Amino acid sequence: MALHGFPHAPPTLPATVPSAVPQPRSPPHRPPSAIFAAGKREKRRGGGCAGSPPARRGRQGTEESPSVSNEPAAEECHGRPYSSACSHDGQCPMPPRRKETPSPSLGKDNADTVIIGGGCVGVSLAYHLAKAGLKDVVLLEKSELTAGSTWHAAGLTTYFHPGINLKKIHSYSIKLYEKLEEETGQAVGFHQPGSIRIASTPTRVDEFKYQMTRAGWHPTEQYLITPEKVQELFPLLNMDTVLAGLYNPGDGHIDPYSLTMALAAGARKYGAQINYPVQVTNLNSRSDGTWEVETPLGIIRAKRVVNTAGFWARDIGKMIGLQHPLIPVHHQYVVTSTIPEVKALKTELPVIRDLEGSYYLRQERDGLLFGPYESEKKMKLQDSWVTNGVPPGFGKELFESDLDRIMEHIEAAMEMVPVLKTADIVNTVAGPITYSPDILPMVGPHQGVKNYWVAIGFGYGIIHAGGIGKYLSDWILDGEPPFDLIEVDPNRYGKWTTTEYTAAKARESYGFNNIVGYPKEERFAGRPTERTSGLYDLLKSKCSMGFHAGWEQPHWFYKPGDDTEYKPSFRRTNWFDPVGREYKQVMGNVGVIDLSPFGKFKVKGTDSVKLLDHLFANVVPKVSSTNISHMLTPRGKVYAELTVSQLHPGEFMLVTGSGSELHDLRWIEENVMRGGYKVEIENVTDEMGVLGVAGPYARQVLQKLTDEDLSDGSFKFLQSKHLKLSDIPVTAIRISYTGELGWELYHRKEDSIALYNAIMEAGQKEGIDNFGTYALNALRLEKGFRAWGAEMNCDTNPLEAGLEYFVKLNKPADFTGKQALKQIKEKGLKRRLVYLTLETDNVDPEGNESVWHNGKVIGNTTSGSFSYSAQKSLAFAYVPIELSKVGQKLEVELLGKNYPATIIQEPLVLTEPTRMRLQKKGESPKI
């Protein structure tokens, strides 16, 4: 897609009504440096309307209690404290605040759902649960609604998100906010002038093109626009460095307080109770899975509790022995007085995000509001709250501002928007925002604690609130998520997520807020964690490591002469040739890969077979056998894919990907509790190492280390055996994600180095060498192997994903999702996963790119790679069933260009077991 203006006329931007804008004093003309002096002198003034509160009274800072402003509390108007920039003469665009009457009572002894925390997210959940018809929804807030982070948020709203399904969350939020005032009678102060992300470097332009193809198969309006169009939309910009803009009509900002009040009004309208100030003092889990929620006013018994407590969420988690990986960060924004050039405009300016300057900027009445993200070295954590808890009474307080910390961003903003040079700062807001290690929230049920849900860690809570409230409400009511959001699953973190790791990653995530987002991006703060493979120390200097759920796993290995720097790119980069070398190693000789990050569970007990027959769509494997099995949701979606081995009668080992370890374990445990199965489940992920050995000489190498017959007749494909390799006990499974002859060798973690060294020494004659996960991905794609999280997840059913072989609809057991899948099959599929080759140049598909046909987007890729055998790009993609035949010509959009693509018969390269079968039949297999 070339750089362009609009394919059609952009939506008309909302006009600002001149009479609705108050007339504060005009700032004197002053040199650029005067803005800092003004900021230091005026930083405790009241805030502007709809987005800029002043600091409220609070205690002076101590080690436990950070420095906060202690001026007398301002009176309040239109949901915000009075502003020196507002005349309150009836011209204010916001209606007077509807006074909230505290209700410090429980009201009832029993509830279906108790929500802890009255910020925007918690109130949204109450609204959605009640609107959906759930009775007995009770929200408890320790202070008052919006206390914490909601009340002082800048209120930005945007359709944009690089995450595929988080776009749905943003879109739903905006659509909800647009109609909320009509539904509830409460004004929300919603402005939708659009937003523009600024590209000032060629790499940024590439990033925008990358994001355009990822957004193309979504209904969101998003345009890559020229500098001329950028200037037309935001005429106050200095265009010297602007190369392009990413424009989202409908973006804007909303008053967080008024939004929360509207959601609260809706929640009450539909029957939810909102009680405050009522502090939760303890949580007690009962044997039947229900909860006792203790407060100073008594106890409420609930079927489930949902922690939406913002920066108090850690304190709530500690009540039940959980250490939620959250930490508050200091975020500042400043508000200017009236700027004549802004006041003179006839339409409201779009929100600007200057990514190189690392700040956002929007119109605030007749001035501007500016919020930066400092570097990881300069940003500030409130880490004392992690160790000591949030100070008692802290609710609507702010930190002391520190303009020196954001000086470079202010200077960058003045260069980009020169009218700032003569503007006064009338307010500076510095408040706490809660960060998770990766900046994404934690949403859903928590593994290991029955009926305990969370919606916490929101760095962008205002735009997430509406969509997450709906998402979580649907999940609670329907028993499965409405769509896949594995990236916000709270179970992506485990015991390895220490306080030190959380602090390091939150600092990095905040500082990296506006850096270029590359595919295959690695971030290095807080690494390695305490969760390392037994081979980490041996391999770390020989390869480029990737981060996988706390583990370090080799992505690709170095050879003399290789460029070993970390060089992410939207195009082929320095690892392209080394990965090709590793690919050839496995296809032509034998390779070794560290697979220790796999999630590994042992299941045994009198009901183990019965449980697995209920959980999985495939049959339960026989003793000493293995199969690939899928857990489905009640609606027939693919919740997980695991390798299942029956090692002994009634004793199983289940293996899943590193990123879905606790995600899958929670689902299994939930089914055990619901069905009352008599089984024992042990998570042995951290105690067990795994080595993969693959390639035509894999058998020859391993045979040197054991007396066990490894021949094809004695050790068949998908068979498992307990044996010793060089006197080291292993559970060997003849399976390989490479599709070549291979084994996965499960062993005690402490034996990893000895086993690895023995294999490498035994394979010297065969030319054995290492390979990493990038080569593994290329190999599995050539074999047509699907990947969970890409080709299949909670958005897909196994039939459209081409997994029919693994789904036994005729087996006697009524496995979860069976009836839904039968109905899907009866109605017929609307789309199907297809296998594409692409004619590209120096770029390969990564997944989630738009697929085109006859000038329209008709589908999306799921994953891709370069095929080192075919010397062209490969990709999986979902397309309409009528366009899914072999030979169909399509196009795939990569970095703004549509490349020819053809659907081919899969796989491109036959698997080793298939080649062996064909050879026995006298046929000539393709390789």
From TrEMBL:
Would you identify the family this protein belongs to, as annotated?
A: Belongs to the GcvT family.
Report the residue ranges that make up the FAD dependent oxidoreductase domain in this protein. Answer: 112-475
Q: What is its EC number?
A: 1.5.8.4
Q: What does this protein do?
A: Catalyzes the demethylation of N,N-dimethylglycine to sarcosine. Also has activity with sarcosine in vitro.
Main subcellular location: mitochondrion
Where is the protein found, in the record's own terms? Answer: Mitochondrion
Q: Which UniProt keywords apply?
A: Acetylation, FAD, Flavoprotein, Mitochondrion, Oxidoreductase, Transit peptide
Coiled coil ranges (UniProt) are none
Q: Which GO terms describe its biological process?
A: choline metabolic process
Q: In which pathway does it act?
A: Amine and polyamine degradation; betaine degradation; sarcosine from betaine: step 2/2
Reaction(s) catalysed (UniProt annotation) = (6S)-5,6,7,8-tetrahydrofolyl-(gamma-L-Glu)(n) + N,N-dimethylglycine + oxidized [electron-transfer flavoprotein] + H(+) = (6R)-5,10-methylenetetrahydrofolyl-(gamma-L-Glu)(n) + sarcosine + reduced [electron-transfer flavoprotein]
What are its cofactors?
Answer: FAD
Q: Which GO terms describe its molecular function?
A: dimethylglycine dehydrogenase activity
What cellular component terms from Gene Ontology apply here? mitochondrion
Which residue ranges does the record assign to the GCVT N-terminal domain? 540-811
**What is the name of the protein in this document?**
Dimethylglycine dehydrogenase, mitochondrial
**FAD dependent oxidoreductase central domain location:** 478-531
Q: Which InterPro entries match?
A: FAD-dep_OxRdtase, FAD/NAD-bd_sf, FAO_M, GcvT/YgfZ/DmdA, GcvT/YgfZ_C, GcvT_C, GCVT_N, TrmE/GcvT-like
Q: Where is this region: Disordered?
A: 1-107
Q: Does the keyword GTP-binding apply?
A: no
Q: Respond yes or no to whether keyword Electron transport is given for this record.
A: no
Aminomethyltransferase C-terminal domain location, by residue?
A: 831-909
